């Protein structure tokens, strides 16, 4: 299948700051691609390059087979992180204004209903809550029924119920064939919505794949957390690895069927505990592992460069 969104070895610097150091991705029609990564990793810069609002220093970017600066803007929907429409227009008037920018657009009231604001159409934008404002901005992005959507942290500031409404909306868009590229710091959001996820760290995509594949490869083992003040030596000959962590013992590689055996050992040895929690690895574990690795590598590079510079000064 032909890619709808492509980035090949994209690089971008701002002065001495390297925002992108060779980022590459490919997104197919109807796919939801989630970009995750630490603050400053380059997510917004990559989205700006993909939407033609910033020019890469090197590399190529194509959307719908064209440069993002020449593609038909009626086919795109773009939600930036910072979006500040006029305060003294109602939610309905704002959507009607953006609808008027296109030859064909959706009915503003239908879009208000889609983003869960059917009862707030007459409220001035300045009087909406932060989460409601963000939902209006999402609606403005979808008013032209785009073929490709770029959503930069679409649910920031939205309450859990509203977030679920936006999630369902994005799922419906993808089911209808819309291609979606979104950035998020919410790992549950990425895990639910994204067909594939790319983790951007230090300006490059260090891992890409389905959430399940990334968890299997990088997420680590399952863990049974035993809330106890006991020392790990109390379970030193257990058949599973045991670590101390924040006032608890973490027993790793335990299947649900084996929890009872661990409990029997705790009881037999008189180890007092106040709670047990079993968890499988998830996308947050992947994020923490890969982002931490990238941060350590970046720190090492900076330290090496500083050491070389100092050596040069004293030579």
UniProtKB/TrEMBL annotation:
Recorded GO MF terms: ATP binding
Protein name from the UniProt record: ABC transporter ATP-binding protein
Sequence ranges assigned to domain ABC transporter in this UniProt record: 5-227
InterPro entries hit by this protein: AAA+_ATPase, ABC_transporter-like_ATP-bd, ABC_transporter-like_CS, ABC_transporter_ATP-binding, P-loop_NTPase
Keywords: ATP-binding, Nucleotide-binding, Transport
CDD domains in UniProt: ABC_DR_subfamily_A
Domain of life: Archaea
Database matches in Pfam families: ABC_tran
SMART domains in the cross-refs: AAA
Protein family (similarity comment): Belongs to the ABC transporter superfamily.
PANTHER family: ABC TRANSPORTER ATP-BINDING PROTEIN, ABC TRANSPORTER ATP-BINDING PROTEIN NATA
């Amino acid at each position: 299948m032909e890619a709808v969104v492509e980035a090949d070895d994209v690089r971008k610097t701002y002065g001495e700051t390297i925002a992108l150091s060779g980022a590459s991705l490919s997104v197919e029609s109807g796919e939801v691609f989630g970009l995750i990564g630490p603050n400053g990793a380059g997510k917004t810069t990559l989205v700006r390059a993909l939407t033609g609002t910033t020019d890469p220093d090197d590399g190529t970017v194509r959307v719908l087979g064209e440069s993002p600066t020449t593609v038909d803007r009626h086919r795109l929907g773009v939600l930036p992180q910072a979006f500040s429409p006029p305060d003294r227009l109602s939610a309905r008037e704002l959507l009607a204004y953006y609808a008027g920018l296109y030859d064909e657009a959706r009915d503003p009231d239908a879009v208000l209903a889609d983003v869960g604001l059917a009862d707030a159409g007459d409220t001035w934008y300045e009087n909406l809550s932060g989460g409601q404002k963000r939902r209006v901005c999402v609606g403005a992005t979808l008013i032209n029924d785009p073929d490709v959507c770029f959503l930069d942290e679409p649910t920031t500031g939205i309450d859990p119920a509203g977030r679920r409404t936006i999630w369902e909306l994005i799922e419906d868009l993808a089911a209808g064939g819309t291609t979606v590229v979104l950035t998020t710091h919410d790992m549950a959001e990425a895990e639910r919505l994204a067909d594939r996820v790319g983790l951007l760290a230090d300006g490059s995509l260090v891992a890409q794949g389905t959430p399940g594949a990334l968890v299997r490869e990088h997420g680590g083992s399952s863990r049974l957390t035993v809330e106890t003040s006991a020392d790990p030596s109390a379970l030193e000959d257990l058949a599973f690895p045991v670590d101390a962590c924040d006032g608890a013992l973490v027993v790793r590689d335990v299947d649900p069927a084996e929890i009872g055996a661990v409990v029997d050992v705790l009881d037999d040895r008189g180890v007092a505990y106040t709670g047990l929690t079993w968890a499988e690895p998830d996308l947050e574990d992947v994020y923490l592992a890969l982002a931490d690795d990238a941060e350590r590598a970046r720190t090492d590079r900076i330290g090496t460069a500083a050491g070389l510079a100092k050596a040069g000064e004293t030579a």
